[in-house]
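Hi everyone,

Forwarding the result from last night's run.
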Amino acid sequence: MSALLGVFGCAETWDNLDVPEPPSIRESDGTTRQGKIVIAGQDWHREIASEELTWIRIDHQTRLQFSDVEVVLESPFTLTVEGVDYPLDPEDRGGLGRLLHVYPDSLQSGRVGPDGTLPLEFASGISIAVPSDPQYEAWSIVGPGNALVVCIPGTAGELAVWG
């Protein structure tokens, strides 16, 4: 989890497609972990599946914990329950009540789409879709261990990956 608390370093802003240096994380002990920029669906793929949702945390973000993997939602997303779409925003904590429909449940599949969208499909048929954001890191996947994947703002499928 130290990766979440680390400082992201980059010579340019995230929305610059010509990032001159790979992304890095400065750990609490002063060491630096270098990451890499990848394109979802082309040179990088990650699937998380068959994991029980162990808890939901809501603060200025929405966090879904699956065993040793945490999915962090930082931008507006769509929750689909019984075919009805509910637009939700982590910043509107009072409007996130419908998110409790996914607990308890287990993740059937989670994968990163080529445009950077993160769709999560649950055993109950409920789904969450988090599109990339033009200005902010829409989502991240933390774990297992020191692994970290961050959806880079202002791109169509570029991800920063560590571990």
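Confidence is low (pLDDT under 50) at residues 1-17.

Cheers,
N.
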